[in-house]
UniProtKB/TrEMBL annotation:
GO terms for molecular function: ATP binding; ATP hydrolysis activity; DNA binding. InterPro entries: AAA+_ATPase, ABC_tran_C, ABC_tran_Xtn, ABC_transporter-like_ATP-bd, ABC_transporter-like_CS, ABCF_ATPase, P-loop_NTPase, Val-tRNA_synth_C_sf. SMART domains: AAA. This is Putative ABC transporter ATP-binding protein YheS. Residues 500-546 are annotated as: Disordered. Pfam families: ABC_tran, ABC_tran_CTD, ABC_tran_Xtn. Keywords: ATP-binding, Nucleotide-binding. The keyword Manganese does not apply.
Length: 601
């Protein structure tokens, strides 16, 4: 196992902010690592340092002589009028047949491969960039937010690619489901330090919270002991008879130190608008057609028609489907940003709609400051403390609350729009990709807030963990139709995964016997029974969680019995306690052995 890349004692500042403070890390040649950290922690700067595009103030980045990095950049590398195939040939210096072969792994064919690449959606352009990376034969992939702008189908395709990619990867992402599916280790950048955890993202987040809670408990005990010693010293140092004891206690006090709880920022807490719950129908449409009116240059464009949909108060409806199918068009029609082309749409009585979408957060009043915008758009009962807490949760802290809207970046405007929406009084929230521009912890806080929200939510998101947490109903937009999906989100995911598996099998079966595509890929089951594999994985994960709870409970029982045994004077009772302790130890050993078997499932 070779070390491909190593970082030693890295230091880097940006103004007054410390991004790297003695950070250290090693990446080996066969491990996929999920890279997480709060927004603004310095993840992108660190990636540039790894590429040696950013100078460190101190420390070094060491590349193994055999290291070949494939870096998925966010910028557009394409030339005007260039096709995807032309780009791949230009970028890689490989012949057209080889470029076409690799492009096929990402379903790039026909007009997607031979038409102008700049006319493709962001998701398809990402597929082209990934094919380009693969043509350079990297042994370390570095992907910076690869799921941004990717629909569910493309995300799953990327997961399958990474699952079969037998080399190293470092992946920056706020998408927990994607990290869980692709990465076996987790790297966190927090307060300038790097922490490598040998486990998946969910296990890491649990471990981090347990570590913080342990530190809080230790700090509480130490603080109590410090106060006790301080009171003793104050009371006894003036007396000659007890002065020596006071000096001894003072020495003890000097040795007591609290542990700094490793929290990068204050814990994120987000609240949804405080509204009264309502019953009945919130929105009904019949025979609805959505799309774009004819102009002098373009004819009418129908995206979907004959839509019949009814949404009840209190539901949290996820609109799902591939990019370009019409999810955003439907949302814009629901909030009256676009006029229906035909049919009827009606909202219930006393409905107040709050909207989070690009056409909203790109048109904020640029004359206001951040705090002025929040004050103007918040509920009249909102306190100054509420305003500052919400601003802080969405990363507007200290002097940033006085920044003018006109100087905010696109991501900052999006977060400001989200903050003002959540401080308002809307009893219907219409959200288009609300997790964009938010880190893992903030997305989780938003999901928790929407769980408690008493109003109605209609939203789109490609973040599977977020949708699973929030959605109570699934509506699919596909092939010009909008229909309620009769099943939960997990069953919808299984359907999409099954369709992708069938497509991959068809491509493999349709290849010539001598082509690389027809050969079985390393680690890929020929049966293709991926759905069963996922069901088995979820079952194993559930058993692991139950075993962890059982092991913790048995440990507590053992400690309690051992404590009782120390004070037991009756030999018969002591023997009974000893037998109980040995039984618990055997049960713990059995549970731990099973836990170890399942941990690598």
């Amino acid at each position: 196992m070779a070390v491909l890349l190593q970082v030693r004692d890295a230091h880097k500042r940006f103004g007054d902010q410390v991004l790297l403070d003695g950070a250290e890390m090693s990446l080996v040649d066969d491990v996929k690592v999920g890279f997480v950290g709060r927004n603004g922690a310095g993840k992108s700067t660190f990636l540039r340092a790894l590429l040696k595009e950013e100078e460190l103030e101190k420390g070094e980045v060491i590349h193994h002589p055999s290291l070949r990095i494939g870096y998925l950049r966010q910028h557009d590398p394409f030339k005007e009028g260039e096709s995807a195939l032309d780009f791949l040939m230009r970028d890689s210096d490989q012949p057209d047949w080889r470029c076409g072969e690799v492009a096929g792994q990402f379903e790039l064919k026909g007009a997607y491969l031979e038409g102008p690449v700049k006319e493709l959606s962001g998701g398809w352009q990402t597929r082209v960039k990934l094919a380009a990376l693969l043509l350079h034969d990297p042994n370390l992939l570095m992907l910076d937010e690869p799921t941004n702008f990717l629909d569910l189908r493309t995300q799953i395709l990327l997961e399958h690619f990474l699952r079969d990619f037998g080399k190293a990867a470092l992946i920056v992402s706020h998408d927990r489901a994607f990290l869980k599916a692709t990465c076996s280790q987790t790297l966190e950048l927090s307060r300038g330090k790097l922490t490598m955890f040998n486990g998946k993202i969910d296990a890491f987040l649990d471990f981090r919270e347990e570590r913080r809670e342990h530190d809080r408990r230790v700090n509480a005990t130490v603080s109590a002991k410090q106060k006790q010693l301080e009171r003793f010293i104050e009371k006894n140092r003036a007396s000659a008879a007890t002065a020596s004891q006071a000096r001894s206690k003072a020495k003890q006090l000097e040795k007591l130190q609290t542990t700094e709880v490793e929290v990068d920022e204050p814990t994120v807490h987000i609240r949804a608008p405080r509204v009264e719950p309502k019953n009945g129908t919130a929105m009904r449409c019949e025979g609805l057609a959505i799309g774009y009116q004819a102009t002098k240059d373009l004819p009418e464009h129908v995206v979907a028609d004959t839509i019949a949909l009814e949404i009840e108060h209190g539901q949290r409806v996820a609109l799902v489907g591939d990019n370009g199918q019409g999810k955003t068009t439907l949302l814009r029609t629901l909030v009256h940003s676009l006029e229906p082309l035909a049919g009827n749409m009606k909202w219930g009585h006393n409905i107040e709609i709050g909207t989070y979408a690009q056409h909203v957060y790109t048109s904020l009043d640029e004359r206001q400051t951040v705090i002025e915008h929040l004050e103007y758009n918040s509920d009249s009962n909102t306190t100054r403390q509420d305003l500052l807490a919400m601003a802080g949760a969405l990363l507007f802290r200290d002097e940033h609350i006085e920044k003018k809207v006109k100087v905010l970046s696109g991501g900052e405007r999006a977060r400001l729009c989200m903050a003002s929406l959540l401080l308002g009084t809307a009893n219907v929230l219409v959200l288009d990709e609300p997790g964009n521009h938010l880190d893992v912890e903030t997305v989780e806080a938003l999901a928790s807030a929407l769980d408690l929200y008493k109003g109605t939510v209609i939203f789109t998101s490609h973040d599977r963990h977020f949708v699973r947490r929030v959605a109570t109903r699934v509506v699919e937009v596909r092939d010009g139709r909008v229909k309620v999906y009769f099943g939960d989100y997990d069953s919808y995911l299984e359907t999409v995964e099954s369709e992708i598996d069938e497509g991959e099998r068809a491509r493999a079966g349709g290849s010539t016997s001598g082509s690389a595509a027809s050969k079985s890929k390393p680690g890929k089951s020929n049966s293709g029974d991926y759905r069963q594999e996922k069901r088995d994985q979820r079952k194993a994960e559930k058993e692991v969680k139950n075993l962890e709870k059982k092991i913790a409970r048995l440990d507590d029982e053992r400690k309690a019995l051992e404590k009782t045994m120390l004070t037991e004077t009756d030999p018969a009772e002591a023997m009974k306690l000893h037998t109980q302790i040995e039984t618990i130890k055997a049960q713990s050993a059995e549970a731990e052995e099973r836990w170890m078997e399942l941990s690598d499932f």
